[in-house]
Design a protein that fits this description.
- The complex is a heterodimer.
- Chain A is an alpha+beta fold.
- Chain A is built from five helices and seven strands; from the N terminus they run αβααββββαββα.
- The longest helix of chain A is centred in the first third of the chain and has 29 residues.
- Chain B contains 16 helices and 20 strands.
- In chain B, the strands form four sheets. Chain B has a seven-stranded antiparallel sheet, sandwiched between helices. Chain B has a six-stranded antiparallel sheet with strand order 14-13-12-17-16-15.
- Chain B is globular and about 85 Å long.
- The N terminus of chain B is likely disordered.
- Classes of the chains: A alpha+beta, B alpha+beta.
- Chains A and B meet through helix 1 and strand 4 of A and strand 18, strand 19 and helix 16 of B.
């Protein structure tokens, strides 16, 4: 982070995402690619000969590469609630940082799918009047997600502004 | 019949109340007061008589719309018929009941020529079918004898007339203190309550045929309204008066005076001469591009395939596009006049179809100054604007830069368009990210706007007032990261994003936070939603 502007307003207090999200994503990676690797290896080895079974290394390699990548991506996600706006920063190679002033929030959504629920996670999605605003924080603990939603809604009301 | 105060009926925060919700409440109420049902029917009859008379004093026309939503569909048709006998009764009862109600709503109907607006639809269907299948059409035509033709007409014409009449009869609109209410539908009822303070723009359009008939269409641009929420057609005078009234009410004039305020005086800011418009179109690349495509593609196809149908099938759409791009634009943008009035900016244009648009101040999200290559020597620019919920985008089709800048200063008060010298170029190393075109990018941030330019041949400078910025994003890909540059995106409420590309990474990080800060504070100095109070 380059910091000239930020120090002027006080260093933001960054919060990372809970470890549960990384666990969930890694599990999903293994659950998807593991059977594919085994299936390819067994089927090709059985039908086309043992040499072809080497193709099973492809999904296996993808899995081995994806494992640390997910870790890097997970570490890159963080958010900070400042006095007047919310910061979300993410991405390793394609870095993106979003600033949404609380007064511009039209709607705050908490969603959680079946897999997320199993891992005890929930996502917070912010909507402004601009559809391009892409402010989503995935994989929060439900209590934290609800706290964030309530706080954002409250701050949004206090600083509300029209279009 | 006891009823809550009119204010309580309006869901204050929701723009639209669904008919079903109305029906539910009305039914509920009817169940509570079974004796009231009979009277409600009388009122309805009275109301219809009144709205056909149209000029009832305001106090005598109470707001009790919701009552009629309890009716079954079957009863609706009886509505009109019964109105004549029940009239006297209903009015008396209505007047007695309302004396307590503070707000009076006059419901009106559209202009009586409205039923004809869809008269061409069956004709178009028949023509479309004939064109689609010429042989079949001819066979059918020869088989037709006068009697079948007559019977067909005898069924079709009354049906069309009845349909047109019923849609017209069951469409009502009313202007209340804070809303425009449109009530429509015979079988499927629909009520739209449009909040006036959320109006983004008001347009009066007069298509060619409507001009001949002396009627006009009124359209409100409010975020979230759809095409059904336009009023088509109204008498020309009525449309103009209604526009003035809506704008006055939206601007916050007291309800009693809103009708008398009348049309605000207009001061003409700019008029585009037809000659300049024609030359500007000749100097536009798109005109020649489409024309060239319309000539080249069919000839190549002719040489390649020698099939007349293929050539026609490609040539016709291409010629259509070329026509729309040159002649169509000329006709649409003919006699373009921009005027200033207290209730907003007035834009009038069109040779055949006349359109009169009004953009209230403070509603503009983005302004773009476009400068095609061939216009640059003459110093001409085109100005486009984005208003949330509005489809109109052109402010000035062509004008000298100084004139255009003075008009922009009216749209965005206090804004001066930064000139080319004031724009900060990307660092030279950005050439490795975007070869050649990197030179076209530029950025200037003044105390009122965020201005970003892009394009090398066709330059486009986008201005966003700080108060209209919804969110700010910084994005950086791996290659940009390697070259230490980054893009800053600014999102506005009209679903447009203005991007300052290829800024130095350190500068971009500072810009990101500074812009968020400016957008937050900019709102405080911005115009209020009710701008004439």
């Amino acid at each position: 982070m380059e910091d000239g502007a930020e120090r002027a307003q006080g260093e933001p207090v960054w919060t990372g995402l809970p470890r549960g999200l990384l666990r969930m994503r890694r599990l999903l990676l293994v659950v998807w690619l593991g059977p594919i690797a085994i299936g390819t290896g067994v089927l090709l080895g059985w039908l086309a000969g043992p040499g072809w079974a080497a193709f099973a290394l492809l999904p296996l390699g993808l899995m081995l590469w994806g494992w640390p990548m997910l870790g890097r991506n997970w570490r890159s996600w963080r958010y900070a609630e400042r006095a007047d706006d919310l910061l979300i920063s993410r991405g390793v190679l394609w870095r993106e940082e979003t600033v949404v002033p609380y007064g511009r929030m039209q709607l705050v959504e908490v969603t959680s799918g079946p897999v997320e629920r199993h891992f005890g996670l929930a996502s917070v999605q912010l909507h402004t009047a601009a559809a391009a605003t892409d402010a989503r924080i995935p994989g929060l603990e439900p209590e934290e997600a609800e706290r964030l939603r309530d706080r954002l809604t409250q701050l949004g009301e206090a600083r509300s502004a029209g279009l | 019949m006891t009823r809550p105060a009119p204010g309580a009926d309006d869901a204050v925060n929701s723009t639209r109340n669904t008919p079903s919700a109305h029906r539910a409440t009305a039914e509920h109420r009817a169940a509570e007061h079974p004796a009231a049902e009979h009277r409600a029917a009388e009122h309805r009859a009275g109301e219809d008589a009144r709205s056909s008379a149209a000029e009832e004093p305001r106090a005598a026309a109470p707001e009790r719309r919701t009552d009629s939503y309890g009716d079954g569909v079957g009863e609706d048709a009886g509505d009109g018929v019964g109105s004549r006998d029940g009239a006297g009764d209903g009015v008396g009862a209505g007047a007695g009941e309302v004396s307590g109600g503070p707000v009076a709503v006059v419901e009106q109907r559209l202009h009586p020529v409205t039923p004809l607006r869809r008269a061409w639809a069956p004709v178009a269907v028949v023509i479309g079918w004939a064109v689609h299948d010429p042989d079949g059409a001819q066979r059918q035509l020869t088989r037709l004898d006068p009697s079948t033709l007559l019977i067909g007409l005898a069924v079709l014409v009354p049906a069309a007339v009845l349909y047109g009449f019923l849609t017209w009869w069951f469409t009502h609109f009313a202007v209340t203190e804070s809303e425009l209410r449109i009530r429509t539908g015979l079988l499927f009822r629909r009520t739209a309550h449009i909040r006036l303070e959320r109006i983004q723009a008001v347009d009066v359009t007069r298509p060619l045929l409507a001009r001949i008939a002396g009627v006009a269409k009124l359209r409100l641009d409010v975020v979230g309204t759809d095409k059904k929420d336009e009023l088509a057609y109204l008498g020309e005078g009525t449309a103009r008066a209604l526009r003035a009234e809506l704008l006055a009410r939206a601007a916050g004039f007291a309800p009693d005076t809103a009708q008398d305020v009348g049309e605000a005086p207009v001061r003409q800011l700019l008029k585009v001469p037809p000659g300049v418009l024609a030359v500007s179109l000749v100097l536009t690349g798109a005109t020649w591009g489409t024309l060239l495509a319309a000539v080249v593609v069919p000839s190549v196809l002719w040489i390649a395939t020698e099939s007349l149908w293929t050539v026609l099938a490609t040539a016709l759409p291409l010629l259509g596009a070329a026509g729309a791009n040159s002649v169509g634009r000329f006709v649409g943008e003919y006699d373009w006049t921009v005027g200033e009035s207290p209730d907003g900016l007035r834009i009038d244009h069109g040779l055949l179809d006349r359109a009169h648009e009004t953009v209230p101040p403070g509603r503009v999200q983005t302004v773009r100054v476009v400068e095609p290559l061939l216009w640059r020597r003459r110093g001409w620019v085109r100005v486009e604007l984005d208003v949330a919920g509005s489809s109109n985008s052109v402010l000035i089709p062509v004008a000298p830069r100084e004139v255009a800048e003075s008009v922009i200063a009216r749209v965005l008060p206090g804004v001066r368009v930064p000139d080319a010298a004031a724009l900060l170029r990307p660092p030279a190393r950005a050439r490795w990210c975007v070869p050649l075109w990197w030179k076209g990018h530029g950025l200037a941030v003044t105390d009122t706007v965020f201005a970003a330019r892009q394009g090398l041949l066709r330059r486009q400078l986008a201005l966003v007032p700080h108060a209209k910025v919804q969110s700010v994003r910084l994005a950086q890909g791996p290659w940009e990261r390697f070259k230490r540059v980054a893009d800053v995106h600014v999102d506005t409420g009209a679903n447009k994003t203005v991007t300052a590309r290829l800024r130095d990474a350190t500068e971009a990080a500072v810009l990101l936070h500074a812009q968020a800060e400016r957008s937050r504070t900019g709102r405080r100095e911005a115009l209020p939603d009710r701008w004439m109070v």
